[in-house]
Amino acid sequence: MANDALLRSEETADLLAEKAKIAEEEAMLLAQKASEAEQEMNRLQVSALRSEEEKVVLEHRVRETELIALRIAEDSERRAKEAEELKEQLIKAKENEKFAKDKLIELTRNPLNDTLGSETKTEQKKEPQYGYPQFNYMTGDAITNEHLRELDMRLEHEMSLSMDSADNSMELLSDNDVEQLSREIEKERMEYMEKSKHLQEQLSELKKEIEVLKDEDKETQYDKLHNINVEMGETKYSTLKRIKAGTAKARVAFFEEL
């Protein structure tokens, strides 16, 4: 009997020693897991700070992109207004050129006809009653030369004014051709549309990145692990049941798997 009691006592002591050892190992594992959890928490905090900084940088980039797009729109509107003014100047220059040419043609024709007509009428008045003209060659030559000189001076003056107006119009026309101006306007419009499209795409990408960062800020690493466990059917109650149902070695193995 004494031997049996001694054996049972030794077995009990061994079991208690084993349990104590297991408890110590469990405590060490828990301490290790707590340290790892603390390190993970610190890492997440640093990551959150970095994400916050990145979000601020992205928001700043979005504001800069919006300002650039606004400046491009204002510049495009200003250029369109300048192009419209140039078109109006060009149309006015063409009208001036046409007017100058018509005036020049009129001046080169009408004064001579008017002068000749007036001379003809004057000489017709000087004809005698019987229809025989009385010519005074000396007087006739003097009158004709005087009229010709006046005609030359008048033509020279009018042509000078007309040519000055035509020259000014031609200068505008040579510098600003309608077709060339239209091509330049169309080119600037296409460039503006391309820049606007590119900026809009960049703006959309930046906004998407900001939304992703905001979602990541709302969902921590532990939330992600929780969602994975829920998908696998793991809850805190099922975990506690597994811990209680297993042996000491099974519990140690479970903690090692964590």
From TrEMBL:
It holds the Pfam family ERM_helical. Keywords: Coiled coil. The keyword Coiled coil applies. Residues 6-110, 178-223 form a coiled coil. It comes from the Eukaryota. SUPFAM superfamilies: Moesin tail domain. Residues 112-133 are annotated as: Disordered. Residues 183-258 form the Ezrin/radixin/moesin C-terminal domain. One of its GO terms (molecular function) is actin binding. The keyword Coiled coil applies. Residues 1-97 form the Ezrin/radixin/moesin alpha-helical domain. InterPro entries: ERM, ERM_C_dom, ERM_helical, Moesin_tail_sf. This is Merlin-like. It comes from Branchiostoma floridae.
